[in-house]
Amino acid sequence: MAVISYREALRAAMREELKRDDKVVIMGEEVAQFNGAYKVTEGLLKEFGPKRVVDTPISEAGFIGLGIGASMLGIRPVMELMFWSFSYVAFDQIVNNAGNIRYMSGGLINCPIVIRGPANGGTNVGATHSHTPEAILASHPGIKVVCPATPYDAKGLLKAAIRDNDPVYVMENTILYNDKGEVPDEDYIVPLGVADVKREGTDLTIVAHGRAVITSLKAAEILEQEHGVSVEVVDLRSIRPLDEETILASVRKTHRALLVEENKPFCGVDAQVAYLIQSRAFDELDAPIHRVSSIDAPQIYCKRMEDQQLPDVNRVVREALKVLA
Amino acid sequence: MAEIIDMPKLSDTMSVGTLVKWNIKEGQTVAFGDILGEVETDKATMELSCTVPGTILKIYAPAGSQLPVGAPICAIGKKGEAAPEPAAAPAPKAPATAVPAIPEKTDVSCIPAAPSSSGSVAPQSDASRAKASPYAKRMAEKAALNVAALAGSGPGGRVVGRDVAAAASAPAAAAPSGPLNVAVAPPADGKGIQPDADVPVGGMRQTIARRLLESKITVPHFYLEVEVDAAPLMAMRESLNKRLAETGADAIKLSVNDFILKASAEALRRVPAVNASWAGTSIRTHGAVHLSFGVALEDGLVTPVIRDAHAKTLKDIAVEAKSLIGKARSKKLTPGEMSGSTFTVTNLGMYGVTGFFGIINVPNAAILSVGATIKKPVVDAQDRLVIGHRMVIGLSGDHRVVDGANGAQFLQALKQLLEEPALMLI
């Protein structure tokens, strides 16, 4: 099995799907000639030509709308947003048009669009370029949202997203682009709506998604080494559909839950997960559910303060010990 | 619009009530204030008065049925209206784990006819409010353990899973459920002294079981005993009763117990440290003496309370005790008349028991156990062997609140008051 980066895994997913299905096209700002703002689409123009890999104007509302229209006519566009923060200027297209057309056409029209790009803080790019809108988007029925944490999941989830007949929004993380991991050479997908137990444990369940999974795995190691605590880490992978059973099975095993995400806490994904656990596993809980989220403020520009704003290993360890008290 | 009347919560500790009887029938018209029937709670039988005038559309629970608080018992509406289908009632649970479904609506349609006085009474401890995680409660239910009786190692003393696991694996805790399941050979002659049976227990018995188990397990009891010369008391009682009978003074007859109650209140005034409660992280001292005393009933025991006994005369106490005993026997005591005690007196002297130690009535710090007055040889102050009238009194103390020395001082004061009973009259 090859060891490749998260960025290469995403690129491999797109290349394989471009080859497999001639309806798949890549569109976005600077995805073709410039090889992508973050080089995720590097080499695809050269390999597949300008009909399959298309540069767009700097107009999210326009080109996302174009992709949605194309997808309704049978094309399977994979759209890149330079940052998911820019989705807000195309919110009507992303939420209202893509999310509702299948329902409003009585199932006659599908919208198999994929929109992907980075959605993360921590890179000193300021409040308007650091949003994590997975909770906002997932709150709309009709929309699917995934947040891969590893190269394996990045490739498998993106391929599953491209093959899915509904709009699927893939939230990546620029800090993870260079992370390496084992990725199979053969064709595989990671099904949407299936969480993954990234580390098994018996004393505490940490539920996380995206880069928070990596932070939680490091925290779990410290908790084991320094505090003798066995921590299970559940990676949601899909925000919607949400794999409720895997979360509940883990809580039924450990009886304690800590929820970690890089979202802001208010109405975050973990607010929903906490509700789920208390409503369906109340009698399993041996302690209140705790959360670790980004500190509730616009993304801080000062790098040293921004590093404190995001959940880090120390904060996860500290909060885990509170749940374990 | 028909209204469903639920089983009301008539006491702090009530989770289940028994509908003793209905005074009404389906189709009958009822007015505000009518007594619909009687409900037996964990300690008392109380009347249900009607606050929703109308026609009884449906009686959901027949007389004799036992129902959790909040379960529908009847529906009242307009004549000819269809009775609403009540939502499925929750199944009664064991009191140790039941969380009473307290109706939160303010228009509770049935209220107890007798108002329950609350005042500044100490809260009764309640197992259903024990601080325990949901997981610990579920584990305890499975293991038939009382979470309220366990020491919690979680934050703020919360009982968590590991505490229940430790208790369940302790050998002593595992025993109780065993023998009940052992098949007992029937008596050889086919005629036993009573049937082999599992007799369901009522609310009062459940409460006794729960509260006394909780006390015996969680309160570190210690025991002191003193022997009292009861001759002066007997003489004084006889002379007082004789004069009272002659003057026909409301036909009061003072019992030995009345003297003990009065002497206890006075002894608590002298050693107030005993009139206190353990409050988790502090000791709560009580300014008033609310004296509780045991009244044996055919099917159990209740402990009515004489409020402000420190401020009452011997006669006041005698009259009030008599009234409370009467109410206890007819099960008419209200929860207010049975809660908020600061000290308890229990007396088995009338059965000839010479001495014993009661289990502390939490949250009291001590309980006084009074034995029979018996004639026996004693050596008097002049070293002569004489016939003495002796009474043995035991004190069970909560060592978290009271130490041996306080307890001894209290008994010393009590002994002096009983041996020189005239002191009680001033």
Structural class determined from secondary elements of chain B: alpha+beta
* Share of residues in strands of chain A: 15-25%
Distance from first to last alpha carbon of chain A:
42 Å
In CATH terms, what is the fold-level topology of the largest domain in chain A? Rossmann fold
CATH class of the largest domain in chain B, named Alpha Beta
Estimated radius of gyration of chain B: 25 Å
**Biggest sheet of chain B, strands in spatial order?**
10-19-18-17-13-16
Given as residue ranges, the uncertain stretches of chain A (5+ residues, pLDDT < 50) are: none
| Share of residues in strands of chain B | 15-25%
Number of helices of chain A: 11
| Level-2 CATH architecture of the largest domain in chain A | 3-Layer(aba) Sandwich
Tally of separate domains of chain A: 2
Give helix and strand order of chain A, one letter per element, not per position.
EHEHEHEHEHEHEEEEHEEHEHEHH
Overall mean pLDDT of chain A stands at 97
Let me know the largest β-sheet of chain B. Answer: 6 strands, mixed
- Annotation, overall tally of beta strands of chain A: 14
* Tally of contiguous helical segments of chain B: 9
**In one word, what is the shape of chain A?**
globular
